């Protein structure tokens, strides 16, 4: 069942329930929405809600991740802990972007070293086997595979050289 929204002229647009809800949610600033959720939920529940919300937003959660990434630049420990839980800590498009942000974070707040190292290790564990296989099997040239898997060409070359294949 849809909702009819008048455009103020002589036309109207039909929105399904998800689109109508998306419109309503967009009226609340993302920072306000996430702050409200952060007050009410533990990190794991917040991560689960954010994962669900990312599929509901037209931008697939881009604005939400932008907001969460900004928490890493602050000093609010609770927000940083939550940010590192959302999307399993995969907040950036590339490993190098993650590494840069995490290096800055750890320089300010060393207690996050183990957590950020674990996120980067998880990135490698997730991407390395597929990226190496794609290069070794000739599925993609190294430059394309590096872009697909969000790693530098140099890192991918090292992975390929280190692989037993």
From TrEMBL:
GO molecular-function terms, A-Z: sequence-specific DNA binding
InterPro entries registered for this protein in UniProt: Trp_repressor/repl_initiator
Name the UniProt record assigns to this protein: Uncharacterized protein
Protein's organism: Actinoallomurus iriomotensis
